[in-house]
Amino acid sequence: RAIVNLIVAVATALMLWFFDIPYAGLWGVLIFFLSFVPYLGAFLSTLPPLILAFAQGGLGLALIIGLLTIVINSLAENIIQPLVMGKGLSVSPIVVFMSCLVWVNILGGLGAFVAMPLTLAFILFMRNFEETRGLAEIMVTTPEAAK
User: Fold this and answer.
1) pTM higher than 0.70, yes or no?
2) For residues 119 and 24, what is the distance between their CA atoms, to the nearest angstrom?
3) pLDDT by residue (tens digit) across 26-71?
4) Exposure of 77 by Cβ count < 10 A (0-12 exposed, 13-18 middle, 19+ buried)?
5) Phi then psi for 21, rounded to 5 degrees?
6) Which of 18, 20, 29, 32 lies deepest, with the highest CB count within 10 Å?
7) Is the dihedral of CA 52, 56, 57, 59 positive or negative?
8) If you ran DSSP here, which 8-state letter would residue 90 be given?
9) Which burial class, exposed, middle or buried, applies to 147 when counting CB atoms under 10 A from its CB (0-12, 13-18, 19+)?
């Protein structure tokens, strides 16, 4: 999670610096730490830079900053996070993405924190039964990780 937050924070801080928003580095640090809070953290961390963008350049600049922030967050959450988590845990990126969706729908915000531990426990559980061992091997990137 920290790697994805760092990528989002650096990309957003560079974007804010490019548009000459004051304290871009500070907003990057705030985004890094608040992004650990699911859903609400990313939203709250971008409010101060949006207010500064509105004060500095009007509604047009604030809309550009807001849209670029949404694009950066979406790319990081939907592409980079499954790749990073899948590689580190030897789980397919598709499984990481789908498990986040499933557990967030079941448990809400808490599901974002426990999605991968629950999925890994589920994979380990499935490998113990002959009927589901094949499915467990499909869910991991290396067959020896399912053993």
Assistant:
1) no
2) 37
3) 989 998 998 888 667 888 888 999 999 999 888 999 999 999 988 9
4) middle
5) -85, 130
6) 32
7) positive
8) T
9) exposed
